[in-house]
Amino acid sequence: MSDKNALIQPDRGQNAVSLHLVDKNGLDAFRKGLNAAQRTALEAQRFEGDAGSHAILPDGEGWMAVAGVADAGKLSSWCMARLAETLPAGTYRRIGGEPGAAMFGWVTGQYRFDRYVSEPKEEGPRVLLTSEVKAIEPILAEAEAVMLVRDLVNTPAEDMGPAQLEAEAENLHKAYRAEIRVTRGDMLEHDFPMVHAVGRAAARSHAPRMIELEWGNPRHPRIAIVGKGVCFDSGGLDVKPSAGMLLMKKDMGGAAHALALARLIMQAQLPVRLHLLVPAVENAIAGNSFRPGDILKSRAGISVEIGNTDAEGRLVLGDALARAGENEPELVIDFATLTGAARVALGPDLPALFAREDATANALLEAGIATDDACWRLPLHEGYREYMKSDIADINNAGSGGGFAGSTTAALFLDRFVPKGVDWVHFDTFAWRPSAKPGRSKGGAALGLRAAWKMLRNRYEEAG
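^ Leucyl aminopeptidase family protein, sequence as received from the core. Prediction below:
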């Protein structure tokens, strides 16, 4: 796509096309301010102020645009995104107010994933001017983080394996002078037995690893961000049907969210001691695949009976969460494309949110609404722990609830590996958009990222 930093610029009186944002309540007043030619053009295009619609009107020797929005006094992230997708290349200025939150969708609406297209469509940038100069950098940072998630998730597994996730962490290490530690090779020797079991059947080029990055002042509050990095999920010996594998390049979407959130934290110099953890594996099929019925050790000392090799994400996260807990963080947030049950319950737009602390859950829900990145809380219901029981081990990785409460039982499994008393949040996110919406392209998607970032800023910027 175009240079993201050029898409929003300070308004210094440059020549620009006028943009008018009008809701239904303000349409009559807007009409009265037009000349006869402009009113005729508006009527010819049957513009009625519906959200998402727009019209092109003559304006002296040039032209201007008018767009319908739900509420011209309270702009959403997406209300100008369709304009950014469809207007001709050029420079634009909102008339009658600042673009505010709509700047975010203006940038993400111009996202294109054309890495594999031999002749990408050439499009010049649509530049938006604003006098809110201090807002430009944080909005661009958020937009770039969201588009990083999209890029990573959209990339096919052959080009986005554990080594490539490691390379992304290396980029963060170099850019922000963070400490990096990558555990490769025999993961059993390094006490990551469940990461080893899930990833051992993959080719050497996609060998399993634990990627860790630490940044920030050790005197600041310690937080851990964990992301599921299953770069492709065949299902293992409990193999998925072919239709179930089509989107499994996105099974590292949790890792993409974690990397993007870590970048936001470091870029903004948030006063925390950050510990990023990404267990990166491919759940492949080979003669040494782990099997249904196996009993796995874990870093936490909990024995796990394998009821289903396709419930592998919770296994690698278990070792990562146990590792995170060893440094006594005050907050742990994990992201994972973990269960189809969450999608059945909430659809593709809403990430399922699980949290131990009500105050943290409420802060995330409020942050999601404020950033147009809504989440929905599901329960860590104690009564469903019995679904994870095993007759021969401490816990089973596949619930025995007959398909009931699949996302909750997965979250309860993870809960066993987080030390008691730690403020822990789990996002069961889809990381994918089945169909495009303004500012939100079809394909890889960041769901829950902006909510988490807003909550962290509210929590730690004030404390700092």
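The chain has 14 helices and 20 strands.
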